[in-house]
Specification:
228 residues; alpha/beta; Rossmann fold; Helicase, Ruva Protein, domain 3; 2 domains; five-stranded parallel beta sheet; 5 strands; 47% helix; elongated
Length: 228
């Protein structure tokens, strides 16, 4: 319900920037960023980025897709993923959520190895936690380079918030950024959502972004972190 003093603003969609220059690197991301930047000089033909939702896997996958010319695949029994892997680099995102056929993924990895291409897989879980029944596939996954991506730390979240706000020509005091970071869900996706809602609500009410507005947005999301 809209308050009488509020007006619905025109909604302009702000697409998240996924280029290499838009990537902010913290200690927890250094290993993953280094492996993406080192393409095509990878330590193995298959690289797996494993980390929680909002850790930056999609951003890094987007950068690698752009740099390598990779094609998105999903290894299924009736698909052509192995054939695509023979022609060039391939990307399989959210392996643990999308699911895959054991034989199909095994053939994709073999195709990558035989043809000198490359495969990047993203997942919330480490590959040893995937429901793999084919022993040969499990062996191939053990030989892959797996890089762990942790949750973004407070410093990175603050940098992301400042950048997202600047993208919308919004200036916010550093203390307010710290207030938001201390209470928001620890993910890059949450940062995007918080900024979108702050911008929309501030426009609707014709006011600047302040602590009261930030508290309202954080409470509405219902996933704030505990603070002392």
């Amino acid at each position: 319900m809209i308050r009488k003093s509020e007006q619905l603003p025109l909604v302009f969609k702000h697409e998240p920037q996924r280029g290499r220059d838009d990537l902010m690197v913290s200690e927890r991301l250094k290993a993953a960023v280094a492996i993406i930047d080192s393409w095509p000089r990878w330590p193995s033909p298959v690289v797996i980025l494993a980390g929680p939702v909002g850790s930056g896997k999609s951003h890094l996958a987007s950068i690698w897709r752009e740099n390598s010319g990779a094609v998105d695949i999903r290894p299924t029994r009736t698909g052509d993923a192995a054939e695509l892997a023979a022609q060039g680099p391939v990307l399989f995102e959210d392996a643990d959520r999308q699911g895959f056929d054991d034989q199909a993924l095994f053939h994709v990895i073999n195709s990558v190895r035989e043809n000198g291409t490359g495969l990047l897989i993203t997942s919330r879980l480490w590959p040893m936690s995937w429901p793999v029944e084919l022993p040969d596939l499990r062996s191939r996954l053990k030989a892959a380079t797996t890089v762990e991506m942790g949750e973004p730390d407070d410093e990175l979240l603050a940098q992301v918030l400042v950048k997202l706000l600047a993208d919308r020509q919004l200036a916010v005091d550093d203390r307010l950024v710290g207030y938001i970071v201390a209470r928001m869900e620890r993910s890059l996706e949450a940062a995007q959502t918080v900024v979108e809602r702050l911008d929309h609500l501030a426009l609707a009410r014709g006011t600047r972004i302040n602590r009261v507005l930030a508290a309202e947005v954080l409470n509405s999301l219902g996933k704030t972190r505990e603070t002392d």
